[in-house]
Amino acid sequence: MLKKERQAHILHQLNIHNRVSSSWLSESMQVSEDTIRRDLQELAESGKVIKVHGGALSLSFSEFNINNNPVYGKDEKQRIARKAISLIKNNMVVLTSGGTTIIELAKSLPRELKATFISGSIPAILEYCNHPNIDVIVIGDKISKNSKITIGADAIAKIKSLRVDICFLGINAIDVQHGVSDDDWDVAQLKKVMIESAQKVAALAISEKIDTFQPISICPLQNLDYLITELDPDDERLEPYKKNSITLI
Amino acid sequence: MLKKERQAHILHQLNIHNRVSSSWLSESMQVSEDTIRRDLQELAESGKVIKVHGGALSLSFSEFNINNNPVYGKDEKQRIARKAISLIKNNMVVLTSGGTTIIELAKSLPRELKATFISGSIPAILEYCNHPNIDVIVIGDKISKNSKITIGADAIAKIKSLRVDICFLGINAIDVQHGVSDDDWDVAQLKKVMIESAQKVAALAISEKIDTFQPISICPLQNLDYLITELDPDDERLEPYKKNSITLI
DNA sequence: AATAAAACTGCATAAAACAGCATAAAAACT
DNA sequence: AGTTTTTATGCTGTTTTATGCAGTTTTATT
Q1: DSSP of B35-93, one letter per residue?
Q2: Domain ranges of chain A
């Protein structure tokens, strides 16, 4: 087998699998690992593959493309935020959960928007505070360290006493069978009452969370009014969610 | 599975769930926990994740800590903070007001201190959150934009229901005749009830605020147990405050 | 304060990378 | 054709890297 052939074969395999291991290549083409190593070295030097210990990765390998922006998945979250904002009208009272998507929403709020935001998420509150025209109401209680959100009976009681126009939930998992679910019991309780206290409920999720589930159930799909992802509302991945009278945005 | 693959997988999981546990990763990728630990270590060193005991957190979960605008009189406030901390013992319940001096206090808390902190000041809460051994309780209510602190009937009622070991007040004005005073009516109300709810009250003030007064009175000197400034307790400027059974620190 | 889980340390090992050499085939040149 | 040069490949021994394991220390939780 000629050198060029071999290298072409390697590139081909990389296109298919996004990864190859030296040992496997050596085996499948019946050449020594040294030869493979030298092939990979050349391909890497001419920038066609990414060489790593034990093999090579395709250029399209996520880390090197996506990871140029420091916050993973930030663009997606900003798209979601923009869509979510279209639901907020002046003088509305808005309840928000925690999570990075919600923080992105908080950061993206247009300056001229005038509304009341209620939340127990410290980072979100901080963002709301920096906004010129937004009234901020804090849900008090004990803070859960890892999610930086207030949780507990007081928080739940306070949320129950509310009746807000719309509630934005940053969700961790959603699928047709289980509905919205989470892996933190306290946070799940909080989200449950948030849903009850809101006229409209919007779930915010990057598409990677679609069709996943976690141990603690929050609500069935029927309770949601909007599902907002970074995808086009007509994307086929969202098809199963259409029949549940959820508005896809 | 190649190392980079694994690390990319970890980042991907983090993107979805915001946090991952080492044990789960180790299980799901069939490698030892040591390997995972080393992966997380590398990712943390290159600043792609935040390593915590038992796993790792997504970066986007701490990026709101970039709040380092210069503080007026920072050195003095740090000195005050150090003195104030000497009053806090393990397992105490501490109530704090807002203000930059209090935030300096929050930042200076020693890692090994184990206590419960209660506050309605968002910046202070954020600092408490980043401390490993401190339980944080948030006083909820409407936020006063300029002081980033919760104010209102709910906050006052909640504080009244407390009985804390010690209360730290960042104060705006103090003099012998009027006692502690302030220029914000809401904040003053809040501080009044804080004082009532605490066994001991410590007032924190840089020396510039000594012997000044403002329109709204909070309490007479008699209600204070400690007065903490950046000055030496024997400084002559503090002489008038000694006879009021206040401990100068 | 006691306990269990996780992190670290140092070591062992296997796999992979590397450097240098040998060789054989291919290419280039006389 | 014969010689030299270049290129490609494999081999040997050494170095580096990746990973797991055992024992200890640290951290979190109750």
Answers
A1: HHHHHHHHHHHTTSEEEETTEEEEGGGTGGG------TTHHHHHHHHHHHHTT--TT-E
A2: 3-66, 74-248
CATH 1.10.10.10 is right for the domain spanning A3-66: yes
Residues within 8 A of B (CB atoms), A 117-136 only: 120, 122-123, 125-129, 135-136
H-assigned helices in chain A: 3-17, 22-29, 33-45, 62-66, 74-85, 100-108, 122-129, 153-160, 185-196, 239-242
Strand D nucleotides within 7 Å of a protein CB: 8-12, 17-22, 27-28
Which superfamily does CATH assign the domain made up of A74-248 to?
A: Translation initiation factor eif-2b; domain 2 (3.40.50.10470)
Q: Does A148 touch chain B (CB under 8 A)?
A: yes
The CATH fold assigned to B3-63 is Arc Repressor Mutant, subunit A (1.10.10)
Q: Is the CB of B6 under 7 A from strand D?
A: yes
Percentage of the residues of chain B whose pLDDT score is greater than 90? 42
Q: Which of residues 20-49 of B touch strand C (CB under 7 A)?
A: 21-23, 33-34, 37, 41
Give the model confidence (pLDDT) of A118-172 as tens digits.
999 988 998 899 888 899 999 999 988 777 899 988 999 999 999 999 999 999 8
**How many Cβ atoms from other residues are within 10 Å of residue B42's Cβ?**
14
Candidates A21, A72, A146; nearest CB to B14: A72
pLDDT (tens digit per residue) in B135-160: 899 999 999 988 899 999 999 999 99
